[in-house]
Amino acid sequence: xxxxxxxxxxxxxxxxxxxxxxxxxxxxxxxxxxxxxxxxxxxxxxxxxxxxxxxxxxxxxxxxxxxxxxxxxxxxxxxxxxxxxxxxxxxxxxxxxxxxxxxxxxxxxxxxxxxxxxxxxxxxxxxxxxxxxxxxxxxx
Length: 140
Description:
transmembrane; 140 residues
């Protein structure tokens, strides 16, 4: 009684399928970890940029307040200048000029901060590009 051997190669594909399945499982797990890390990086970058935007908004707020003070003291200067032709008005004009300088400095600083804000998470985009490159050519 000779039994017929199983067709050649019928046992090996199952082992190969199993090892391919294990490899796919490992790759999937790695991709999940990578995806989570990229999300965390994006969150950190967005938080950093939001902080910069908040500082810039504070500078604009300071410039707005200083501008208000300029109008207040300019009004007082005009009032005192008209009522006391010389003494009190000139003092108020000096204070107004100082507030104008403060407003200009705060505005310039706020403008500089606002231009430094990037709405796009640059590092995350770069690492995603690297990951995509690696996924296309993992042996390089």
